[in-house]
Structures
1.
Amino acid sequence: MHMKITAQKGDNGRYDLLVMGMFEQEVEHIKKIDEKLNGEIAAAIKKKEFTGETGQLKSISTLGKLPAEKILVIGLGKKTDYTKENIRRAAGAAIRVALSLNARKCTTLLHEAECESTTESERIAAVVEGSVLGLYRFNQYKTDKKEQEKQVDELVIPTNNSEANEAIHKAETVCTSTLHVRDMVNTPANIATPRYLADEALKLKKLGVKVKVYEKDELQKMGFNAFLAVAQGSAQPPVFVVMEYGSGKDVYACIGKGITFDSGGLNIKPTTGMEDMKMDKAGAATVIALMETVARLKLSVHLICAFPACENMLSGTSYKPGDIITSYNKKNIEMMNTDAEGRMVLSDALSFIEKQYAPKAMIDLATLTGACVVALGYWATGLMTTDDGLFEQLRDAGKETGERVWRLPLWDEYKDILRSENADVRSVGRSYDAGTIAGAIFLKNFVEKTPWVHLDIAGTAWMPENKYYYTKGATGTGVRLLVNWLEKKVKD
Ligand code: BES
Ligand code: ZN
Ligand code: ZN
């Protein structure tokens, strides 16, 4: 299953596949190789079969004339538009071609073409990211092993760069954890229960992470009533998990929504697509994997990652629209739609983490609203905050990693949406207008003074089809974004 990635000085060995890129109309640097291929690439260009447009693929058999059996040329688009994200995407597309060809031993030149103001190490990292993420498959439950038999065993990156191995190792670490998110999120609700997520968190103890699992009776005593209200309709016991790594006075906290299945509750969801609601634990899976990465890289930060995990189900014990529930921070919530369960479970978690750890910044990740998918689709995470500095930091981290965020406003005028007749706050508005913002406005009631960011990953945590280095299903979004953000907090 595991692909070995190595940096290699000099040109040696035989490969099943050599991957190279070509900019639009820039035939010059492929000429040397093309000559050995009897000008096949030039001919394809002439016929307009291949122009170098972004994403175009052309594979050519070398008939033994080169140390690789096949060559894959990838269109890189216009040189002036070329970015690190293009490298990741090209590498992702290439590795999938390699997989389909069962090319076991591959080599790539995609790190060579310069772009933006990147160093070669950064470009090597991008190649590794695209390759590792693009190779992912969720097939452990297929007993017919035919597909599994196709593999890429080795990817060789030719370079004289002495920092290459470090760049490879780091990118591999972050991406392996990203794939861990994909596995957790793709695993269905009958297997990936709240307990399962707690066990995944407990595994991090061997990396030096402190892990505390709060069970139902303890949560009752603590007053986690908004969380427990959601959990009360399910046969699966809820858990609230807090992980801690590192030390120091500046604490950063990340909190993930961990609904292992969102049926909608009494406000039940429609049949179509309900099976995808196993993905409603993506926030929790992301913070587990973030903790894993930070511990593996031994980043010198003090990090808290926490998640409430439960199912949102229908039964005689379910919470009901109209219920008034007193949260951990003693606000009375008029709960008006059982399908808006994410904000309920997060509210107690946010207040608790703020009170216990007084973090310097607190970020929550949640597949919170369908409205966010309507607004932004799959290519931007919805970001809401009142802290401009944190917005800028995350926007920059998003640009660097390709996990882009897009800010939506939290102006005071939006507060009216959640004014309640009978309690302190309604859990949802009277209409679906500004649904994503309404979710954030609700959460804001549970954060007193900590600089806080809400990330709505409803559209970015899940891809409807294979695209670039994303694979159908869970994406693992958030890990690379937040590792990048945290790295800049490291004091050296
Ligand atoms: N988990 C859903 C949001 C969601 C929808 C995530 C689609 C990913 C894809 C969330 O719990 C939910 O159901 N939200 C409601 C809120 C509404 C009742 C205000 C929604 O979006 O309809
Ligand atoms: Zn819901
Ligand atoms: Zn949900």
2.
Amino acid sequence: MRRTHVNIGLIGYAFMGKAHSHAFKDVAMFFPELRLRPVMKAICGRNEAAVKAAAERYGWESWETDAMKLISRPDIDVVDIASPGWAHKEQVLAAARAGKAIICEKPIANTLAEAKEMAAAVRKARVPSLVMFNYRRVPAVALAREIIRAGEIGEIRHFRAFYLQDWIVDPAFPLVWRLDREQAGSGALGDIGSHIIDMARFLVGELDEVCGMTRTFIRERPLPAADSGSGLRRQAARGRKMGKVTVDDAAAWLASFDNGAVGTFEATRFATGRKNFNGFEIYGSRGGLCFNFEDMNRLQFLSLKDGAARQGFRDILVTDATHPYIKAWWPAGHIIGYEHTFVNAVYDFLEALASKKPASPDMDDGLRVQAVLEAIEISARNREWVRVRDLL
Ligand code: SOE
């Protein structure tokens, strides 16, 4: 008998846990054609009171405080890993061994070595996987890819991408886990730089060589009240009130793509006034495309096929039923938001499961992104260009 439902176990109940929970809860409402409907079986987090409250609030049937127990539950088919980066490797390896389908937040790992082990285990277990690079599921970004694939802007010469935030500009902001290399792997580079690397791979193609730099503007911060990791605990144990920031606050890098395009990238948490300003500009031999997430329902498009007197970037409001994902949502002009990208991603994943086809981006894509991250860090350290494929 054909399966009609799939049981989900989610690890993580904070920002990403909430976004993923919303996606599982709403996907069948907006995509009624869904062939495999998600059952929100269990959510997992180390803090019992917090995860119990999240289970009730988000609509999960049960809750766990031990990730390995959740992964091993026979009633869990898909393990969704929305935990901090330091936990990803153990959880992905356990889920692969248990033969579970895997969703994993980005970046997949804290190091390239971890990512290689994780991707190999998922390949060996032959389990489906998805990495939650959610910005691929913005309708305007998916439309940009359709335009590029149709050749409407010709051969791509330039790809410029940016991911600008400012949430740690204040020196009084505490030393949270994302600012500790042991827990996060890197700072802005891995957390938000991974998104624009994935965007580059999605829209333009593979990065061949990179040359980068990283910067840490504020090197010491107040230790958080409830320290959240061994690195921070060690600093607190020494009676310190301030802890060392061990990751980058900002990164910038150049890239040459396999197809000859030139890339310029910037990822920073110190772009004062920018909250989640990520986007790109693409310039081709026959036109261009520009997008920024703070205006996520619009895509700027130029095609030289218009006569010179009519040339100029046109502003496409990407809310038409013919645009990617939109027919599931609202009539033209009724814009969508950040949370819809996760619903779109979960829909694509569940449809891939139902059709037994690979989802994208998968753990091998996550490995490719991790190799670019590593190449940028090596380049910044050695002040030289680094070829990505030499690291894989
Ligand atoms: C923090 O920088 C963060 O939550 C990222 O981790 C997410 O991937 C991004 O979508 C929003 O900002």
3.
Amino acid sequence: MANVQIVEVGPRDGLQNESVLFTTSQKLEFLGRVIDAGARRVEAASFVNPKLVPQMADAEAVAAGLPRRAGVTFIGLVLNKRGALRALEAGMDELGAVCAASDGFALRNQGMTSDASLAMCCEVVRLARGQAHPAQITISTAFGCPFDGEVDPSRVVEMARLAAASGPVEIAIADTIGVASPGEVSALVERVAAAIRPLPVRVHFHNTRNTGLANVWAALHAGAQIVDASLGGIGGCPFAPRATGNVPTEDVAYMLERSGYRTGLDLDSLIASARWLAGVMGRDVPGMLSRAGVFPKQSAGPAIA
Ligand code: ZN
């Protein structure tokens, strides 16, 4: 039975793209809940310009209040060296550096070219390692760019190969705007995995076009070992106004557990927390397991009896 590690990104990618502003204490409750449900790697905050991303303006306060447990790693997302220094200073365990495969996205999201964003990521990894912290690199817009359109898969493979040389703990390929199909995912994950072996591949999917779970499945069968997901499937994309968020943690965990994978996550806890999240946000979350309930029926049961 294979293990799959799910990285919980709801407290960062989920909240960052939501219009509802969570208080610091609500964020800390969110973090505590996903850890109680079994999450062992959690993206807790991004250290970015608070003028551009007001949802993450309290990153230092979140870092100071992290619900520390043995074996739990908190990741701080960064888009430049300045953010990396902030995240390390704030005491984050691991840095997640982001580059983009397309110039259009890199320039708008990070104010630098794709090449410069990759160089920055490698510098961030070396900086973290110099302070004995692990770091990883995510290649965003790996399947398509909202500004430049199609992205050449060979460009992503080459970036992954160069990124791997800096010594990260893993490389992620991200479908930032949720355009990927399972066939494309299989092909790209296989190529990236071969290019960076023995480093593991992590995947990051948005369910914008309802291909998210199929893409997770395709990625795992093509050699990915780690999957990003956000509780409730919250989030979105600032460049796709009606888009849904990341693949929902509880739906991914249900699919994988029923298929014989081990995720280390407790479905009942995830469901309870997805409903808590819906309550805080004042609307349904996109994830479906918290509405339908697990099968076979366990204690949480369906939302409507
Ligand atoms: Zn994302």
4.
Amino acid sequence: MDRRFVLVGLCATGALAGAGQALAQTSDGKPSGPLEISSPGGILQVRIRSGEGNIQKGIPAYEVRRLGNPVIALSRLGFRFADAPDLAPDMEVVEARARSFDQIWEQPWGEQRLIRNHYNELAVTFAETSGLKRLMRVVFRVYDDGIGFRYEFPEQPNLVNALITEELTEFRFVEDAEAFWIPARHSNRYEYLYNTTPLNEMFMAHTPVTMRTGDGLHISVHEAALVDYASMVLRRSGANTFQADLTPWSDGIRVKARAPFVTPWRTLQIADSAGGLITSYLILNLNEPNALGDVSWVEPGKYVGVWWEMHLGTGTWGSGPKHSATTANVKRYIDFAAEHGFSGVLVEGWNLGWDGDWYRDGGSAFDFVKAYPDFDLPELARYGAERKVRLIGHHETAGNISRYENQLDAALDLMETHGVRAVKTGYVADAGQIQRIDEKGITRHEFHDGQFMARHHLHVVKEAAKRKVSINAHEPIKDTGLRRTYPNWVAREGARGQEYNAWGNPGCPPEHTVILPFTRMLAGPMDYTPGVFDLFNTRRENRDTRVETTLAKELALYVVIYSPIQMACDLPEHYEARPEPFRFIKDVVTDWEETRVLNARIGDYVTIARKARRGDDWFLGSLTDENGRLFDIDLDFLDSGRNYKAQIYRDGPKADWRSDPYDMEIIEGLVNSRSKFALRLAPGGGQAVRFTPATKAEMRRLKRI
Ligand code: NOJ
Ligand code: CA
């Protein structure tokens, strides 16, 4: 990061000032000739043209080059509507404006405190030359690490209500690539293991979709600022070619809008290295700044919870002898949290409605205000407050949106009253089974990632913000960086997480967590819930199931899989049985000043170092897939001229996730920024390290590594 820049926006508006070729104009003042714009460092170029290749004249299209080489060949833009003719294939450019922007902004919490938002922008307005003469603007923001573009429909007489049936945006990649993707519109939402296939074998995929070309270019397609629109899924429409496929409403319409409106940004992150995708903050940059003002009440932190025992089957959400959310059991968790420095205790199964088959019954009995009689909320809030531990609320909706929205105010008021600062929401229902009651009182079934749910989630997040409550949504709509605008949207699930290791068939194989950082994690923080210490303790009925990592890898996940809220998901007794490795979970922080990727290959390994936002500590996490690996890494991220104590939690010589996942070495030594540091990762293994400035006593006591 260039520290010379201050927290001030530097904007320039004009005819492509310093941002590409100057615009030529025809005698009637309309732009003519090629329209193009380059990124500030000249790395990426976008050109707008039509009437070439497959693209008929009058159809807007764009292409992307990187350092002169084509990445996206000429690709179509446009829309089809239900209630109006399709945008005619006779559009012409009536206006083109360019501007540059350069600003450093600060995240209230995050993986990187200061982020530079530096782009050149080209906004091109197209108009139909006949018929309705409708206007459509496409705005391109071109960064050195990627591009974003969105459509804007200004207020206009012949386009008022828009019922979008198809967005025609295309991504025509110039060559096949190796793609990492999960299928879209399948019942299990985003909770699939990733496919690694040629790009051309990807049919329908959720974004982020990430790919590596033969030349080693890394490209990820996603979107930013999905506010009041449907999610974009990529559908294969030809060789190396994908079209935006917007998730439909139950009536088949994709998006219901009223001009003026804007679409989300369609994004392409493009980097030479896999790690370059992780440290690209393009998605956040394309979102609007914080709309909530003072958000000092949003609290990053670590939590434990009445959770894993229910997934193991030793406890239940519903009432009965195994009910987990009892006053006594929650007090046990609060005591444990207080003793070990956790700030929150998640309590699931505290409210009425879990008895019977809540999933099959579509959550029709859930009450978000009434607790089970054996759960004393006021007493537990008091007990927690005395010990500086907050309860974390839980609202499982089973996708019954009207039921939840009808109770939302009261439900969130209750949380506020009892000092609850975070609520985990849940939408357990198959894809396409979200319940919406329409204007006529008829129940309709929607997707988790359609426009209806985009609206619902933001409604919940805004209502929660009024009560200083943060939201962690499970079975959510995908993340598109809205945490920048609403910093109380702290995390979500939206991928296959640790819970699958309890259920099995299959769980999360070793490769999964070395694909997530380059796919799902590019969207935003994930509540993966790391930290299982009893790796064989899974559901009794699935005895062949287990957590497919070494113990050291469970620790390393805290650094690699970023979230401002991190759970230590296992049972207190399993941590108490292994106090030494548990120390790392107690020490690791969840809010960062800076993030560096030290090495990475998608699907194989990743090593990340992050500096704590407060204090001088650095933490390192390294993960591998099913293969053991040795690496030498430089510690040049450490302050030069300073000695650090390294507390190393690494796989032992016999460690292997299959045969000996617990073999671990915990050692301490002295290092500095010039040290060469050896990482040894077992098959399915990992390594976690804490670096702390060494005291004088430690300088004397510890050996140099
Ligand atoms: C699925 C969530 O991912 C999990 O964390 C939660 O415990 C259950 N739903 C019940 O709400
Ligand atoms: Ca889930």
